[in-house]
# Entry
Amino acid sequence: MSTLEWHHDILDGYEAADLGAPAAAGGQEDGPLTRTLIRREAVPEAPRGVALIVHGYNDYFFATHLADALAESGCAVYAVDMRRAGRSLREGNQAHHIGHIDELGEDIADAAAAVRVDAGVRGFGELPLVVHAHSTGGLAATIWAHDRPDPGLAGLILDGPLFGLPLSAWQAAAMRIVPTLARYQPRRVVVPAPSPYTTGLSQRGWVFDTSWKRPEGVGATAGWLAATLAARTRVAAGLAIEVPILLASADSTGPDRLDNPRHGSQDTVVDVAAIDRVAAGLGGDVERLVVEGAIHDLALSADAPRQRYLDAVRAFTVKVLE
# Structure
């Protein structure tokens, strides 16, 4: 992999570089594909590892306080905006659409390889890798860590991973036709709902680019739904991830409505009970962390649960880098 060309990022103290199109990008129907690697300019004096932050659906990297926590753990910190997302969104792209979870796995794999090369260019040498992945990114990172982990992978942190959705009986029944629909109309938007979750984040003071993390939501395509359903089925069947895992979630799931009195203190996106069900089957070393009062993205929770989560991230990272 060639040396990357870095430029100033939209975030102060960060740089970004274009990773280019994925190898399997042929035949796309919605414009050019690329991926973007972001790096924190400041690094620990003697880094003991590198960390890669992976975002979720209707999302991109902006949580610099999470990067700070990983840096405090001894890591040079990077993040990736995957295809059709955030900094990588190009004209004509259908935001966040995928046809298979391996598309995101390829983005994670390419970013991890680029991180390790760049660490060498910066004079850090061969360092172990910690991946922090949220929501759909957590689902993709889980499959990637089982199927084709980076040789330097030392630990996996899963923040509210998409291992299950809180569906009503009729919604669960409707999901059964999605794989068939995806074969014929993969780009058809099936769930066009807005995102009260994202609106709530903005109301609670989080600042982000609303063209990349949209309060009006991003319509989920049949392809995305089928891809994530197939990946969730694989996870539920059991995996054999060989590195330590910190599996973190909120303590409960509730409705994604702004009139929900716990909208700012529980997960309103994924089913945390599904995370409990699959935890033991992910690998031989899984640390389950349940944070009372946290939301879907634990790193964006209120002060106390966020602090508890970041403390756990630091402790886990230090442990796997020893």
Notes: The radius of gyration is 18 Å.
